[in-house]
Design brief:
The protein is α/β, with parallel strands linked by helices and 331 residues long. Helices cover 35% and strands 29% of the residues. The protein contains nine helices and 15 strands. A nine-stranded mixed sheet has the order 14-13-12-11-7-10-9-8-15. Strands 3-2-1-4-5-6 form a six-stranded parallel sheet, sandwiched between helices. The chain is globular and about 60 Å long. The mean pLDDT is 97.
Length: 331
């Protein structure tokens, strides 16, 4: 019988009820033991919908439940640090939504707390768990497109009319770099396999939206004179793209960050020709749940322990560059 990781869900956020909770229930290794909300009626309603045994009216009660092994935290960004540390102190393994913190200092505190408590901490970048990431990295490693030169990444959408959206609250960690810019930034770190050296970013800070960055574009410099050119936005036409450029070819990924099954294919261009690669389709949220459980049960991490700190260091430096309108070194 497959060993099951017993999950507690901290809040009834849409990302939880719409994506992560169904994925945990579909996974081979997970089950939802409890859910908590600051409104008990809301958690009871969601528990009834998903067939969850226990509903709580506070996060403290959930963390005190001895039948919960791990928690998923989809709270607003400014609450991540507090509740990750409290979950660690309660002995729970933690999957926390991206971005994991407001800055690298908070992320370092969270990593240290989890290390001290002996619990596993992961940041919920579900796209990294899709099977095509392995295939994409294998093609790059094979040399088919030659030596890597540049990556271009875009992720934009338009939700600017919803001014009550928590993504537009500056003190809560709002803004396009936190919300969607983090995707091409993490993808470049993953595919280059190294950390960036400097960033230059320009952004649109909107007074109508609590002065968060509603659009940002930038250059991220990597060792070996390689780079990521990216843009992200919450006030622009919906689009996603990741292009990996090498000396002998390029790879174009039309739906890089939330593909599942039929939309997971990508195109490899070499020698004046192209081929369509059709990876095994999968729900990346399900894969994320199973990879997380495997890390808990085996003690072997899917992603390096310091990865969330490095993610936040890059994001905060991009914001600093945009505010100062200058190139900022990371080394």
């Amino acid at each position: 019988m497959t060993q099951k990781l017993r999950w507690g869900i901290m809040s009834c956020a849409q990302i939880a009820t719409g994506s992560v909770m169904p994925a945990i229930q579909e996974s081979e290794t997970g089950m939802i033991q409890a859910i908590a909300s600051r409104e008990l009626e809301k958690s009871r309603a969601v528990a009834a919908e998903f067939g969850i045994a226990q509903a709580y009216g506070s996060y403290e009660e959930l963390l005190a439940d001895p039948d919960v092994d791990a928690v998923y935290i989809p709270l607003p960004n400014h609450l991540h640090c507090e509740w990750v540390i409290r979950a660690a102190e309660a002995g729970k393994h933690i999957l926390c939504e991206k971005p994991i913190a407001l800055n690298s200092s908070e992320a370092a505190q969270m990593v240290a707390a989890c290390r001290t408590a002996g619990v596993h901490l992961a940041e919920a970048y579900m796209y990294r768990h899709h099977p095509r990431i392995v295939e994409l990295r294998d093609i790059i490693a094979s040399g088919e497109i030659g030596a890597l030169r540049s990556i271009r990444g875009t992720f934009t959408y338009n939700d600017a009319t919803d001014t009550s959206n928590i993504r537009f609250k500056s003190a809560w960690g709002g803004g396009s770099l936190y919300d969607v810019g983090c995707y091409p930034l993490t993808a470049a770190r993953l595919l280059f396999g190294t950390e960036p050296e400097a960033v230059t970013v320009q952004a649109l800070f909107s007074p109508e939206h609590d002065n968060v960055d509603m659009m940002a574009s930038g250059l991220v410099e990597f060792p070996g004179d390689r780079n990521l050119i990216f843009d992200c936005g919450m006030w622009a036409y919906n689009r996603q793209l990741l292009e990996v450029l090498g000396t002998l070819g390029r790879i174009e990924i039309p739906m890089p960050f939330n593909a599942r099954f039929d939309d997971a294919e990508f195109i490899v261009y070499t020698g004046g020709e192209s081929r369509c690669v059709k990876p095994v389709g999968a729900n990346p949220y399900v894969q994320q749940a199973d990879h997380f459980a495997a890390a808990v049960f085996s003690g072997k991490r899917w992603i390096a322990e310091e990865d969330p700190v490095l993610n936040m260091k890059l994001i905060e430096t991009c914001l600093e560059s945009a505010r100062k309108r200058e190139r900022i070194s990371l080394v």
